[in-house]
Amino acid sequence: MAKNIIFYFSGTGNSLKVAKDIASAIQDCELISMGKSHKLSGTYERIGFVYPIYAGGMPGAVERFVKALDLLANKNSFIFAVCTSGSGSAGGLTNISKIIGGKGGKLSYGESIKCFSNYVGLYAMGSDADNKAKAQSQATKQVIKDIQSLVVKPPCKNNPIALLHGPFIKWMAKRDKGFNVSEACNGCSTCSKVCPVGNIKMQDGKPIFLHNCEQCMACIQWCPKQSINLKNKTQNRGRYHHPEITLAEMINRK
Ligand SMILES: Cc1cc2nc3c(=O)[nH]c(=O)nc-3n(C[C@H](O)[C@H](O)[C@H](O)COP(=O)(O)O)c2cc1C
Ligand code: SF4
Ligand code: SF4
After folding, report:
1. Ligand 3 contact, 21 CB (< 6 A)
2. Which of 51, 120, 199, 218 could form a disulfide with 9 if both were Cys (CB 3.0 to 4.6 A apart)?
């Protein structure tokens, strides 16, 4: 069993890159996706959660995952959360702090890292992916130092944007009803493999969306044919994934 464990959720690789960077620095660390539930066996020195901010808070899948996690044997571990976002963590760290507190644990450290904004369902992708990736790596360095030294830094108070979170998350789960697949689709099933929550099944060589969507945008962003779109909105908005994260890493998650 490893000494440390990090749970991550990631649609376009920003959070996976942060999780990988922290894991390789603290060493002896398991990396586990929060797409499906996990049973902690044994005790860990550090337990981390790394995830993107969606609508000012945690992705629904992350919230469900943390709520279901049995922390009883790990109440004294150094528990940390690092979220990635376009502009800030809003309520995404205070949410997780409350959930962990409710289980008798303590979120010792919470920090957010500014990254490339990936919500192609809402806006066009910027052209500064490489610069944003550099800034992300730079910001991750301080977070790594803190986590290595077990620095205690609980998250600060909610930002007012966090109030929008609950209603938005509910609305987003069914937003895949607006997804369409163009004739360019070659049936490769990348979309189904990259979906972190199993919301896509292949039928007659085409993806079908099951309406338990996290809006992580992985399917739209990683489709090699750019054939998945949200209504008529995303056709000309470009596509993004973190430049140092490969499709294989996204698919071969544990
Ligand atoms: C559905 C959705 C909602 C988002 N909402 C926010 C937000 O409220 N605030 C923010 O700063 N960034 C927001 N973002 C941007 C992501 O948090 C950011 O790009 C993150 O680093 C993506 O991580 P990933 O590459 O690991 O998926 C949103 C992205 C998506 C897909
Ligand atoms: S990833 Fe794109 S091309 Fe491949 S099956 Fe899905 S929609 Fe079709
Ligand atoms: S269907 Fe697409 S957007 Fe929805 S959770 Fe799966 S990969 Fe993410």
Report:
1. no
2. 51
